[in-house]
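Notebook entry, cofactor series.
This is the third protein in the set we're modelling with a bound small molecule. For this one the ligand is adenosine-5'-triphosphate. I'm keeping the input format identical across the series so the outputs can be compared line by line later. Sequence and SMILES below, as received.
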Amino acid sequence: MEVLNTGVTGLDEMLKGGIPKEHIVAVLGSPGTGKSTFALQFIYSGLLKGENCIYLSLEESEDMIVKTASIFGWDLKPFITNKKLVLIRLSAMNIKVTAARVENDLPRLFESFGVKRLVIDPITLYEMMYESESGRREHLFNFAEKIREHGITVVMTSETNNNNPYNSKFGLIEYIADGVILFRQVRQNDLRSVTTVIEVSKMRRIDHSRDIKPYAITKNGIVVHSESEVFN
Ligand SMILES: Nc1ncnc2c1ncn2[C@@H]1O[C@H](COP(=O)(O)OP(=O)(O)OP(=O)(O)O)[C@@H](O)[C@H]1O
Ligand SMILES: [Mg+2]
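Returned structure with ligand:
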C-alpha cells in the first residue's frame, strides 16, 4: 500500500511509514496543540517530493500561512510561484459563498490541478456553518465522497469538544475520517508542567501503534519523542 510520509518522523514510525494514500485523516486537538503546524509540515513534506498540494484555510490569510511556515524554515513561496502549492483562504463569515466554493469550486480544482495532498484547517469552521446536525452530517459526508473520487490524501484539523479532548467539537468527523490523530495536553502530577502527547486512535487498513508519545513544537516543527513513554 502506498503511504505518504507526514514529515514528522516519530509519527511516521507510529504509522508504519505514513498515512495510507487516499485516506482522510482528522487531526484533533485543543487550541495551541500544533494542529496547524502539523498540517503545514504535512504539506511541506509533499512539496519536497514534488507533489501538488492545496492548503485550504478557514482561519488565516495566505500571507499569514506563508509567514508562519517561514518561521519553521519552510519556504512556500517558490512552490506557489511554480504552481505546486495553492493556498486558499475562505472566510467562515461568508457562509453561502464559502459553502459553494468548498462544494463546487474545490472539486473542479481537484480535477484541473491533479492534487495529491489537501489540508483543511480547520474543518470545524465549515461544520459550524450548518445549524442542524443532519445538515452538517449530510454536507460533510458528501464533501468526503467528492474528495474520495479524486484519490487525494487529506489532513483536516479540528477543535476538540470542550468537555472531551478525545472527540471533535461535533463528534462527527472521526466517523467520516479513515484516520484520527489526537494531540493532547496532559498536566503532570506535580501540576507544574504540561506535556503534549500524540496518539493514533484510528487508522483504517494499517496496524498502527497504539502508544501515547510525547511531542514538542520546535523551531523545525513538530517532533515526536518516539523513544519516550508516557504514563497518565
Ligand atoms: N517557533 C516556534 N517554536 C516553538 N513553538 C512554537 C513556535 N511557534 C509556535 N509554537 C507553539 O505552537 C503553538 C501554536 O501551534 P498551532 O498554531 O499549530 O496550534 P493549533 O492547534 O493550530 O492552534 P489553534 O487551535 O489555535 O488553531 C503555540 O501556542 C506555541 O506553543
Ligand atoms: Mg490552528
